[in-house]
Design brief:
Blueprint lengths: L1 H17 L6 H29 L7 H34 L4 H4 L2 H24 L19 H5 L7 H33 L4 H30 L6 H23 L3 H8 L1
């Protein structure tokens, strides 16, 4: 599955770079989504594969903190990119005659850079209050990777305050992104309801693909973080699902369904 993730997303990235017809805001954002998916899968899955094949299944404290940092960088960046993609589709569907002016290269670059900057800032805020916690007791993380909710529980202190800070930070990031996505999809549907049936069908097809990805991405996160400090067996399954299956489905749902990308890949 990891090989499929890397090859599939690299195909999308190389096709987007090499094909001039795909040098548009939508495909620039999609290429960056593929980059995030490769990174998101690599830093978790490679260690997971190593632990399946070797004993003991250990990780250094520095490596654990690095996993937490990279997880929130890439996951946070992907949340913002999904919002940027929803905004791009809103402009394309609701303001087609002004699309080239509104979604110019400068704004597209700003959205992409902004997603990385917000991801890094979000991650730094999470790690900053975790790295200095007193870890001098239990050192077993019951998961395939170092999840922040499980690592905080290992601190030798009352972790109520760090838990609340983590929930507020991650919750604000996730809920804000999800609300912006839902609002944008609603506005698009309201805007095209008086259009022709062909426009309505096109909009529904586009939004269906977006909603599938959003559900796959946010669904496991919502379930895991709804009970963040209670470890359920299904949490491991959802963690693997979000780290492995979502990066596989993203290029299929978003990119390989497009005629322009399929034509470029064949050529």
């Amino acid at each position: 599955m990891y090989v499929i993730i890397v090859l599939g997303n690299l195909l999308i990235i190389l096709t987007g770079i090499s094909e001039p017809a795909l040098h548009t805001p939508m495909y620039i954002i999609l290429n960056n989504l593929s980059v995030l998916d490769v990174f998101l899968a690599t830093y978790i899955t490679s260690k997971m594969i190593h632990d399946f094949l070797h004993e003991p299944k250990t990780i250094s404290f520095e490596g654990c903190i690095a996993q937490i940092f990279l997880l929130h960088v890439f996951a946070g960046g992907e949340m913002v990119l999904l919002v940027a993609m929803a905004y791009d589709r809103y402009v394309a569907i609701c303001k087609p005659f002004h699309y080239a002016t509104i979604m110019n290269l400068c704004k597209c670059t700003g959205l992409v850079v902004g997603s990385w900057v917000i991801g890094v800032m979000h991650s730094l805020s999470q790690v900053s209050f975790t790295v200095n916690l007193p870890f001098c007791g239990p050192n077993i993380v019951d998961s395939y990777y170092c999840d922040l909710t499980l690592v905080i529980k290992l601190a030798y202190m009352d972790t109520y305050v760090p838990e609340v800070l983590m929930l507020l930070d991650s919750g604000l990031m996730g809920v804000t992104s999800l609300l912006l996505l839902l609002v944008s999809y609603t506005v698009i549907l309201v805007a095209v309801r008086h259009h022709s049936s062909a426009d309505m069908t096109k909009a529904c097809n586009t939004l269906t693909a977006h909603i599938i990805v959003v559900t796959l991405f946010f669904g496991p996160c919502i379930f895991i973080y709804a009970w963040p400090f209670s470890n359920f067996p299904v949490d491991k399954l959802l963690s693997v699902f979000s780290m492995v299956f979502t990066p596989i489905l993203n290029p299929i749902i978003y990119t390989l369904r497009n005629k322009e990308v399929k034509s470029a890949c064949i050529n």
